[in-house]
Amino acid sequence: MTVPIQTMEIMITAMLIFLTQTGFAMLETGFVRRRNATDVVMKALCIFSGTILMFCLLDHFLALVPDESFVLFSLLFCALTAKIAASAMAERAKILPCCLFGIFIGVIVFPLSEHWVWGAGWLQYLGFHDFAGGTAVHVLGGTAALLGAWLLGPRLGKYDRLGKPRVIKGHNVALSAIGVALLWFSWFGFSFGFVLWRADGAATHMLSDIFVHLSLASASSTMVALMLTWMRYKKPDATITLNGVLAGLVGITAGCDVVSASESVWIGMLAGVIAVLGIEWIDKRLNVDDPIGVVGVHALGGAVGTIALGLFARDGGLLHGGGFRLLGVQLLGVGVVIVWAGALSFLAYKLLDALLGFRITQEEELAEIELSVPSPPDGYTWAEYPFLTRLDWSESVQQGEVGYDQRIGVDQAVPTVDLRTSVAACKMTRIDIVTKPNRLDELKTAMNLLGITGMTVCTVMGYGMQRGATQFYRGVEIEATLLPKIKLEIVVCKVPVRAVVEAAKQTLYTGNIGDGKIFVYDVENVVKIRTGEEGYEALQDSDQDVHVFDDSK
């Protein structure tokens, strides 16, 4: 039996669009910390699979897509919208409500706006133009992502008590770059698919031009993001440049069939500027924690690109003598989709939060092993430790932002033994304190108050009598899980050892297993390499050793 040519083309297009799921998963995985890689991949698989099942089920009863040959093509767009909506909540959302939120946006919210824009709906009747989903997919998904990330709140330690953002780096820019390359490649499938969907002979004739417009917009947006970050931050930012690649693609998606090559460049440049400034504004001004840059790229980039058609469209654009009508219709369409997506996202989030609880517990978020999604402990998913991202836990605890310091009574605590010893006045002693990484800032503050400024901090791994947290890999229990800790090493002479020990105990004590241990050693000698001083003198700083740094330089 011979397969019709159009059916073959649809299948090839669907395969190209399918790569967007791979690209987004790789992009998001590279932009988060290593310990959350498994969580990101699991959510991507669940959202994609759940959206396919739910869409096909609803389509069977409601006939969402009249032409059955395009069911696969349409459900892939639903899955893409769902993934965009859920991506901004990375690293702190539970897997089940996060996936249900994305599926709700893709399967329930997207089809109606799709009908307004493409299915002979009222927006299409007014003349609203969105060729391949700049608003119907990207603005809708980006708006849902903004509402979700705002309602969920930032990751612990992302902002200090004054609202200033801190850097939490992604772990693999190269992986994200591969994901962006796959997205750029798969973007051609969007345009080809819409040409087939509309069976538009003129659009088919323009297919090569559309591909060129996509590439020009993305390239110009990339260069703008590169140069803008270089000027603002004194060196180019690779992650925002990658966002710039996508911003150009999102920006030109709505009008790649009705603008010229030079206008594609201008739209790409505009989308690049908006994405860079938008990502910074959302992070610093709105205090919305969006680790992937979803809102700046998809919501803002898609909106700007769609509205720009009112200026640049060859037929009806303001710059081509068409007046303000098309510009007004484009503004109306973008505004309606934003309100629609925002209202339904708010309701969906509140409902899921009430039923399931949307956010992972503070224990899970602070833990170095992802507790909500069990993962192999000795490979790709080992964590970077929170103190490496300069998280100020002491300020958060004092302000009530982190409810970690929940002490229990002494009578309920794990029994301890008092091992007090007398120490000579100038005897040198080394004190090692092993505890949880997230208590480092509080411990440093306590030591500084005692007058101790010289200390060494290193990361260690191990377990006590409890043999770590039970973990499973492919259904098999792992015999022993090494837990990440920090070890603070201090050598004291005049500062009483007992004072250091008591300050550390008071700071670190919660009464729960895992508070840590303190080790005390005799030190025979200390030698300062630069001066050759030994013993007590080697521990002191002379006037020549003190340097004043001017932070303003």
In terms of topology, how is this protein built?
Elements: H1 5-31, H2 37-62, H3 71-87, H4 95-118, H5 122-126, H6 134-152, H7 173-198, H8 201-205, H9 207-233, H10 238-253, H11 261-284, H12 294-312, H13 325-356, H14 362-366, H15 393-398, E1 429-435, H16 440-449, E2 456-462, E3 472-473, E4 476-477, E5 483-492, H17 497-508, E6 517-522
Antiparallel strand pairs: 1-5, 1-6, 2-5, 3-4
Brief summary:
The chain is of the alpha+beta class and 553 residues long. The chain contains 17 helices and six strands.
Q: What descriptors fit this protein?
A:
single chain; 553 residues; alpha+beta; 17 helices; 54% helix; elongated; disordered C terminus
Q: Can you characterise this structure?
A:
With 553 residues, this protein is α+β, with helices and mostly antiparallel strands. The protein folds into 2 domains: 5-359, Ammonium transporter fold, CATH 1.10.3430; 396-545, Alpha-Beta Plaits (2-Layer Sandwich). It has helices spanning 5-31, 37-62, 71-87, 95-118, 122-126, 134-152, 173-198, 201-205, 207-233, 238-253, 261-284, 294-312, 325-356, 362-366, 393-398, 440-449, 497-508; strands at residues 429-435, 456-462, 472-473, 476-477, 483-492, 517-522. Strands 2-5-1-6 form a 4-stranded antiparallel sheet, with helices on one face. Strand 3 and strand 4 (476-477) form a beta hairpin. The chain starts with a helix and ends in a 31-residue tail after the last strand. The model is unreliable at 375-405, 416-425 and 543-553 (pLDDT under 50).
